[in-house]
Amino acid sequence: MRALGNLRxxxxxxxxxxxxxxxxxxxxxxxLAAFPFVARPAMAQTPNGRNSGRFVVVIDAAHGGDDNGxxxxxxxxxxxxxxxxxxxxxxxxxxxxxxxxxxxxxxxVTTRESNVTLDSDARAQIANRAVASxxxxxxxxxxxxxxxxxxHIFVSxxxxxxxxxxxxxxxxxxGYVERSTKFAGVVNSAFEQSGQGGGSGPVPATLGRASLPxxxxxxxxxxxxxxxxxxTANGKVIADVTDADYQMQVVQALVNALVEWKSETDGGAxxxxxxxxxxxxxxx
Amino acid sequence: xxxxYQKILFGVLLIASIAMAVVLxxxxxxxxxxxxxxxxxxxxxxxxxxxxxxxxxxxANDSDGTLVSEAHSLPLPKDSEASARAILAKLLExxxxxxxxxxxxxxxxxxxxxxxxxxxxxxxxxxxxxxxAVVNLSGAFADGHPSGILTESLTVESICATLHANLPxxxxxxxxxxxxxxxxLAGHADLTRTYLTAELxxxxxxxxxxx
Lengths: 284, 211
Ligand SMILES: [Zn+2]
Known about the structure:
The complex is a heterodimer of chains A (284) and B (211).
Chain A lengths: L1 H13 L7 H13 L2 E3 L15 E7 L9 E2 L11 E2 H18 L3 E4 L9 H12 L4 E9 L6 E6 L9 E3 L8 H16 L12 E6 L2 H4 L5 E6 L2 E2 L5 E3 L4 H26 L15
Parallel strand pairs in A: 2-5, 2-6, 6-10, 7-9
Antiparallel strand pairs in A: 1-8, 3-4, 7-10, 11-12
Helix pairs in contact in A: 3-7, 5-7
Chain B lengths: L3 H37 L5 H4 L2 E10 L4 E10 L4 H17 L14 E8 L12 E7 L1 H6 L4 H18 L3 E8 L17 E2 L12 E2 L1
Parallel strand pairs in B: 2-7, 4-5
Antiparallel strand pairs in B: 1-2, 3-4, 5-6
Helix pairs in contact in B: 3-5
The structure holds zinc ion.
């Protein structure tokens, strides 16, 4: 199956990009439908691509609809912000993050804007379509939990591989694991520097790897960010995940991380994929 | 005057009823003794008799997302599948204790069974001597597990790492819940995949021996 994919791809690649008409696109769609493979962004580049040459941020508010996620707000005995479901907290943070990033000139795509059910494949499809012709990208899946302390940053546990022309759908992230790990380092230092001047102190962050079906299929530097209550050494909750100020501190740290990641990407590391450098974003 | 034949009949019936009473009492005593013997042989008593052995538990810590190796001594059954189950039961007992570094509510028989099978050999790969451990968790344990990427991943990783630490032949681990495949533990950790013990993250320094 892999050999067939490569063979067809080579045929596609030799044709003139401008001659890639409806029939060729049809063949590609059929190929994608027939095999669980995903095309690399460079292949999907089209002259009329909406995000062509831009830096694109994909925000995935995890859970939604029938899937409530974790029940939150009990860590501090419901003292801070009351009880809430994970799906509503991730959506609220997604909306805040989107508006702050849009204000800074980022092209932002969200997987959901309301309380709808989406499976992990649908989320990855939205992300992969959005970053298909982008010059640089970052994908964030937002979660919240009562367990642990501070922000948990997760990179896919897939073994890193060199990016291939066609990657198996379930392991498409493997070619991006190295860049995702770099991006995780940028997010981690943004958390370390967060809360300065606000008096609340930085958000403690831990880095980890996990098997995450949505992230594992994404063709972008992708992370899952899980926020948990901030606790003291003896386990006392300082800030619960339902606390709006704490959520804002996390969102602000993510904005700073994305500004930094975009400037690193613009610096040349991520521009060798055929598209021109970013024109969409503004660096502060 | 009572006829003679009636006297004889009465005597015979009296003797018969006494004999039946004696037999009944005997049978009851015999049954009671058999029941006591059966209780002595019940498997629940056996582990207490088994000698204590040193085991290594890879205990999760939610505050920094690490696994810490701890030595414990446990009475272990001889059978390796039953022994793997006993080791995992001890690990989950630690998580259920108050003040645990990785709190997970305890349930009775959280690990229903552990099956050890020869690991399937991938095409083109050299014959692996590894074993596949299939851990069958109880539905009540999965339903009561806290929801979150960190907490669920740590439970899965600590089970895999603990199995590998005590049964080094275990190279792959799969999970079932009530004997069925389940998509995730509590909404996050993928239970449909095979976990490879070689891919487990590094662990923190070990602590001293604990009873
Ligand atoms: Zn979640």
